[in-house]
Design brief:
Two copies of one chain form a homodimer. Chain A has 239 residues and is mainly α. Chain A has two domains: 1-63, Arc Repressor Mutant, subunit A (Orthogonal Bundle); 69-238, Tetracycline Repressor, domain 2. Chain A contains nine helices and no strands. Chain A is elongated, with a radius of gyration of 22 Å. The first copy, chain A, starts with 19 loop residues before the first helix and ends with a helix. The interface between A and B is large, with 72 and 72 residues. Chain B binds a DNA duplex (30 and 30 nucleotides) through residues 1-3, 13-19, 22, 44-46, 54-58, 60-61, 65-66. Chains A, B: Pfam families: TetR_C_33, TetR_N. Chains A, B: Keywords: DNA-binding, Transcription, Transcription regulation.
Chain lengths: 239, 239
DNA sequence: CTGCGAGGTTGACGACGTCAAGTTGACAGT
DNA sequence: ACTGTCAACTTGACGTCGTCAACCTCGCAG
């Protein structure tokens, strides 16, 4: 059904040394296809090539195979996502705890606005073996988060290893985003922001409380009553 | 490369009225293929048919198309996952707050032990339109969680709409599971259970604290200092 | 004006999901 | 025992997919 798509315009062959131009056009066509169809199955080498006004195997001059093309698309998305989150965190730099919250909401909002791209990023098949540039980008994203957590630890709002705290925070925001995308029929609040904000606060509060609780190691898992006691200490220390 | 797989054994044709036998064997073969390959791309109609000792179109006598076969596999997984979680929750029924924690850990453990199946469940393409049996199963899973949250609300440990609380809890456990599966190279703790348990506690504590905080509505987002004050109230009320 | 290499095209292969048509064989009815 | 019927399957084909080998083609260096 999509096999009948025709070229948007005629292409003039790139001159030697300017092959990067086609690479750019291919990437653009791939992103456009994703956005239009809202379905990653529409991302076909043939469709991308046709849309670019070029024959299918021409793509192979610029990308090793289909997964390399997808990886390149993902890199673009990673960069955008990283920029959006960092911007949100820095916009509330005066209160690091609130900065984290804004970063989290920005992350989730981005995911919900670009569900197909987000699927590609986070729900693609896990690459076997070597840590390619894509893993590098994901690690960079985690690094941003860790750097945003560190001021909170320094200020005494959070306790524990900043990287582990960042991991749990990332898991929370990813969970919200992925769950809304994958199960839209769940009884979500009318305004998605309500859910995102509540989730971000839950994560922040829980992390703060847990850090306090863990700072005095216990033998067994604490009871609910012990949780309450730890909370009192936390609140008192923050006054 | 996988096209050369041969039948495991010769099949004797089912007698009229016993076609369900083949359906069962097909489902089994599909699950085996997933487990062996650890990759959902190995789940091919041809591979399933060959493994079952039958021609490819024979599958269509029992499943409308490939997605119907996948959906049937998912239903099996949903049932197992639901049973595992419910069992864990009921094992700690005396302290509902701890019951939730155990349910969460059980959920995540299941996902990490069956990553391919979990991907199929939660990361499949979102079905358009009508709420099929698969959405029904997901809703049932959410219902279990909601029922586990309700005693906590009744006991005063948590506050708010049980369903919304359950949604946030599900988002948290899903986020942990999905993130570990999709990004195994992240600096996770050596023992996965450490992460799972910390995440479950974080979510529980955060939800409890947030519920307390939200019970007296505010105009703007609370500051970090206000969070601390709310914590003190929570701890006092739980004594 | 000529060769050559970067930047493409053509045509084909095998694997995939899917369908239309034919085949087989266990049972019911006589 | 013979036959018809219908569920259960097989055969063969179509179109699409990713991928590859071989060929073409143009702009520029010599």
């Amino acid at each position: 059904m999509s096999g009948t798509e025709r070229a948007v315009r005629a292409r003039t062959r790139a001159r030697p040394g300017e092959g990067q131009l086609l690479r750019e056009e291919i990437l653009l066509a791939a992103q456009t296809l994703l956005d239009e169809a809202g379905d990653e199955s529409a991302l076909t080498l043939r469709a991308v090539a046709t849309r670019t006004g070029v024959s299918t195997p021409a793509v192979y001059r610029h990308f090793a195979d289909k997964s390399a093309l997808i990886a390149a698309v993902c890199m673009r998305v990673w960069e955008t996502l990283g920029a959006v989150v960092r911007e949100a965190i820095e916009a509330a730099a005066d209160d690091p705890f609130q900065g984290l919250r804004h970063g989290a909401v920005a992350y989730m909002r981005f995911g919900l606005q670009h569900p197909v791209q987000y699927r590609l990023l986070m729900m693609g098949a896990p690459r076997p073996g070597e840590p390619g540039p894509q893993q590098e980008a994901a690690m960079a994203c985690l690094r941003y988060l860790t750097e945003a957590v560190e001021p909170c630890v320094a200020a005494g709002v959070l306790r524990g290893d900043p990287q582990q705290i960042a991991l749990r925070a990332l898991a929370t925001v990813h969970g919200c985003t992925a769950l809304v995308i994958a199960h839209p029929y769940f009884p979500w609040p009318q305004d998605p922001d309500d859910f995102l904000d509540a989730a971000a606060r839950t994560s922040g509060l829980g992390t703060a409380a847990l850090g306090w609780l863990e700072s005095e190691p216990r033998e067994a898992a604490p009871t609910t009553a012990q949780y309450a006691e730890a909370f009192r200490d936390w609140a008192a220390a923050l006054r």
